[in-house]
Amino acid sequence: MKKPTFHILVCNSYRIAGGAQGACNRKNAPAMIQYFTEGAADRGLDVAVSSTACLNVCAQGPVVVVHPQNVWYGGIESEDQMDEILDALENDEIVEKYKISD
């Protein structure tokens, strides 16, 4: 199996005992998965996009994690912000202004 160059994880606030209930899900995380998937394909990027359970940083949500860089982005709520992240992947860069991890 060929693994993708990048893996984008989108917090969707799923809880162990049930469905999505947290901040990221309420702030449109489900639509972000489709946007990242289509945006990456449009750019010809080799990206897998996945939904996750709660990443436990609700105050900074919606949260997006990009691997293999292991960069955590917070407050990603607009298509412009998602485009900036995809643009950064194209250019092997990090969008520092959204980064919530070191």
Task: Explain what you see.
The chain is of the alpha+beta class and 102 residues long. It has one domain (6-98): Glutaredoxin. It is built from three helices and five strands; from the N terminus they run ββααβββα. Strand 4 and strand 5 form a beta hairpin. The protein is globular. The N and C termini lie far apart (31 Å). The mean pLDDT is 91.
CATH domain class:
Alpha Beta
The low-confidence runs, each spanning 5 or more residues with pLDDT under 50, are none
Strand content: 25-35%
Mean pLDDT: 91
The radius of gyration over CA amounts to 13 Å
The CATH topology annotation reads as Glutaredoxin
Largest sheet report: 5 strands, mixed
The first-to-last residue Cα distance is: 31 Å
CATH architecture: 3-Layer(aba) Sandwich
The strand count comes to: 5
Tell me the name of the CATH homologous superfamily: Glutaredoxin
How would you name the oligomeric state of the polypeptide chains in this document?
single chain
Number of helices: 3
Tell me the helix content: 25-40%
